[in-house]
């Protein structure tokens, strides 16, 4: 094995370790959420299968940007996506067994459902591990890559906002609190929540001066970023909220008005996740 191949193998191994750490760190909230344990048992299998089908291209696109190592081809991105989901499965199985959620007397169907569901956010966390747990030199290089891409990929910006919204929504949508809050809110509360969610998205990215904060082009009017990025980002967040709520059965047997209220409630953390993704990914 040549020195270059050995170095590449070492980098990939370090990436795997960071991926496992990311799967654990980002997956812990769901791994210790009771509603997710039950959903893995009783949620319709066709919805679970659809979630797994949907998440794979998301992982591939995410790996193309922040894989376990810098990827140059779609096949490498697909490899990283497969490895990320494998790490999500392994991490979920180990932690659920450690917590006593998976027991030997449970049917195989229950094991598969719980692990497959928990592995979805864990796999996203595995890929986020490289972005957030990488060394300073890698982060500097990644920031340079992102600077080069930011001006050319509008769709990429919306995609990363969608990933951030999806990740937080997967953590929060299964809880009963979303439904309880939606029933307590009045229409005035819902309107205020929409406005505050949009303002938070915009402020996080353009006003709060966090690391990774975006700046407006010199001649661009102040409303340009709001119309071009923030409002479309909120629409993306809304679509993801509806899909996640439907996946977890939160929209079953509910009126259109109540479904909209639930979406607005879930959009609040989803908007924060979307804005955070633009800053750090």
What does it look like?
This protein is an all-alpha fold and 281 residues long. The chain is 79% helix and 0% strand. The protein is built from 11 helices and no strands. The protein has helices at residues 3-31, 34-42, 45-66, 74-98, 108-133, 136-150, 154-172, 176-184, 187-206, 224-247, 256-280. Helix 2 crosses helix 5 and helix 10 (224-247) crosses helix 11. The longest helix is centred in the N-terminal third of the chain and has 29 residues, at 3-31. It is flat and about 50 Å long. The chain starts with a helix and ends with a helix.
Give the number of helices: 11
Described by strand count, sense and barrel closure, the largest sheet is: none
Compute the average pLDDT: 82
* Rg from alpha-carbon coordinates: 20 Å
Order of helices and strands: HHHHHHHHHHH
Report helical residue fraction. over 70%
Give the termini distance in whole angstroms.
34 Å
